[in-house]
Amino acid sequence: MYTLLESCLEKLEIFEFINYMENGLKDPHHDIRLLTYLMLIKLAGLCPSQVLQRLDKICEPLKGQLLTKPKSNAVKQEIDKQEELKRAVIRVILALQKIPDAERQQQLMDVVNTIRFTTELKIILENVQKDAQRTYTGDIAMETI
Q1: Can you tell me the distance from the alpha carbon of 13 to that of 106, in angstroms, rounded to the nearest whole number?
Q2: Do 111 and 84 contact (CB within 8 A), yes or no?
Q3: Cα dihedral 60→25→115→123 (10° resolution)
């Protein structure tokens, strides 16, 4: 699906594509959700008005992912996967906020406020923003050399 976005966007029925993407947001598999988050970020940049029209259905599973707590008997790998999904969701929210008039969408603002007023999520947000800052300034390229 991601390849379709990149190679033949003009041939896609966007709302049908978004239907399938919404299913991916609820998929039980970690990898599918991560890919869906990447597609959503891409789609927010390519077709912002169509994404804006579907924010009500998109934001609900995103908020659910942010509020998911690991099981009490979860192993480190499961906890790490949950954290990775939360970071990905926060990247999606940051991309959605860039859409013109997105701040008028109550569902999106509810998710934004959940992030702002939850200590754990606020820390993840700050880390995601720092990582993005390093990417733009070239610090990551210097760190990997």
Answers
A1: 26
A2: no
A3: 160
Categorise residue 86: left if φ over 0, alpha if ψ from -120 to 50, beta otherwise: alpha
The first and second tokens of residue 120, run together, are 């754990």
pLDDT digits (tens, 9 = 90+) for 22-58: 999 999 999 999 999 999 999 999 999 999 999 999 9
**DSSP character string of 20-77:** HHHHHHT-S-HHHHHHHHHHHHHHHHH-HHHHHHTHHHHHHHHHHHHH----TT--HH
Distance of CA 17 to the CA centre of its chain: 17
82 burial class (0-12, 13-18, 19+ CB within 10 angstroms)? middle
Q: List, in order of start, the domains of the chain with CATH numbers.
A: 1-143 (1.20.870)
End-to-end CA distance of the chain: 34
* pLDDT, tens only, 62-84: 999 999 998 889 899 999 999 99
Tell me if 56 sits within 8 A of 63, measured CB to CB.
no
pTM of the full structure = 0.88
